Amino acid sequence: MMKKDEEKTKKKLTAVETQGDDISRIARASKIMERMVNQNTYDDIAQDFKYWEDVSDDFREQEGTLLPLWKFSYEKAKRLAVTALCWNPKYKDLFAVGHGSYDFMKQAQGMVCYYTLKNPSFPEFIYPVDSGLMCLDIHPEHPYLCAVGYYDGSVGVYNVVEKVPKPLYRSTAKTGKHTDPVWQVSWQKDDLDNNLNFFSVSSDGRVVSWTLVKNELIHTDIITLKMDEAPQEGPDGTQIVTLGCGTCFDFHKQTDYLFLVGTEEGKIHKCSKAYSSQFLDTFDAHHMAVYKVQWNTFHPKIFISCSADWSVKIWDSTYTKGPMFTFDLGSSVGDVAWAPYSSTVFAAVTADGKVFVYDLNVNKYEPICEQAVVQKKKTKLTHIAFNPTNPIVVVGDDRGHITSMKLSPNLRKVPKEKKGATAETKGPEVEIAKMDKLLALVREPPQSKDK
Questions:
Q1: Separation CA 333–CA 383 (nearest Å)
Q2: DSSP state letter for 405
Q3: What are the beta bridge partners of residue 84?
Q4: Which of 169, 360, 387, 442 is the most core-located residue (most Cβ within 10 A)?
């Protein structure tokens, strides 16, 4: 009798296994079929993405529009805000979305979803997380690796190729995890031993470097964000140094050791990986928390910041007395991003559901596009990201939706190439010169020494 039962269960198991094999055999074909069906369903959007250009741009000089394309959402992530957006550097149609919550009284689980423009109806990969996800970054050279930061202060690394729902690496209290939410993570160049490493910033006042060694994460504290105030005395007479709360950071594109850190107190610190005890410079940037700081794509000295104090500011990293440009957007600014194709174009998203696009080369005072992109009044926009090659942006909101939009021709003007143009008169040099021309108008003239 026992033998018969065993044989039955064996048969069942083999049937299940072969069933699994059958499904995996047609997995690729079914994915292609699904994409074809979706392309037919959303054919008008696919045609717009590829070919449609707003002709009315020819009749207006200083304005442009955003054309809504696909809308991405996943049923289980609908009540979770979009806390991070990142395009894949290799596969230009693929982007990762982090889901969590900015309401600290309502913290639940989080999620990482990968979407592709080829299939707007369902995510390519889904990773449910036990803690809210606050940030993510895809490795520029190994596009299958994704570093993430959690609300509970830990960081992790996912490998998309290994179809495992858990992270390959995750920090714990024993291995030096942060004590507050991790607000941003960023991959860096491999260290001297060719180990992969990334940095994280948290509101516990630490900027930490994480190195992937064999099967564990090794942490090194790079800098602690000490505040200017005199140390306070603890109950037993010990000196307690108050720490600033780091909210965002960005690493310089050419100078490897240089990076900026934005804080909840509204300051931006210019730091070096070599000095752990002091800042190179400090900017009194905003009156409220700094939500984003980012170096310009082309110009090595310029960076942009946005804050809950409704403003976006553009800074010269060598001039700490004040910003070069200030823009008031009339609502809390959740995110700002430089365009990958121009040194003077940037876009920002606000809590009242609007996207703003500026081109300083066209208008230094007003946006060339201001557009509401959410249907419900109370929906806040949280993040924006430019596609590295296609003329589109993706925008995330606090209801878990991601909207992709196409930039009209006026929003992506590139300087016309002159006849007989050489390498010097096109490329990054032109973009840097374009920004320098603008800065010359707003910079204070150099003081002459004769006085």
A1: 9
A2: E
A3: 98
A4: 360
Tokens of 134: 């606050």
Query: Could you tell me how many residues make up the chain?
Result: 451
For residue 425, pLDDT over 60 is answered with no
Query: What does the block give as tokens for 287?
Result: 């009156």
pLDDT at 383: 92
**Count of other CB atoms within 10 angstroms of residue 219:** 17
Residue 291: which residues within 8 A CB-CB, separation 6 or more? 247, 248, 262, 306, 307, 308, 333, 334, 335
Letter for the amino acid at 251?
F
Average the pLDDT over 51-61 and give the result: 77
Helix, strand, coil shares, percent, the chain, to 5: 20, 40, 45
- pLDDT higher than 60, residue 328: yes
* C-alpha–C-alpha distance, residues 306 and 287, integer Å: 11
- Which residues lie below 8 Å from residue 138, measured CB to CB, with a gap of 6+? 86, 87, 88, 89, 96, 145, 146, 187
Query: What pLDDT score does 16 carry?
Result: 47
**CB 3: neighbour CB atoms within 10 A?**
7
Q: Which of 28-42, 50-64, 217-231, 246-260 has maximum average pLDDT?
A: 246-260
| DSSP-derived secondary structure for 117-128 | TTBTTS-SEEEE
Q: What is the DSSP letter of 298?
A: S
Max Cα–Cα distance, the chain, nearest Å: 108
CB 290 within 8 A of CB 306: yes
What is the average per-residue pLDDT within 320-326?
84
Q: Which residue in this structure is represented by tokens 């970054």?
A: 137
Q: Could you give the angle at the alpha carbon of 436 between the alpha carbons of 434 and 440, nearest 5°?
A: 125
pLDDT at 395 over 90: yes
> DSSP string covering 316-359, please?
ETT--SS-SEEEE-SS-EEEEEE-SS-SSEEEEEETTSEEEEEE
Task: Give residue 419's pLDDT.
Answer: 52
The answer to whether 350 and 381 have CB atoms below 8 angstroms apart is yes
DSSP E strands in 29-103: the ranges are 66-72, 81-87, 94-100
For residue 336 the two structure tokens come to 């700002």
Q: Is the pLDDT of residue 292 over 70?
A: yes
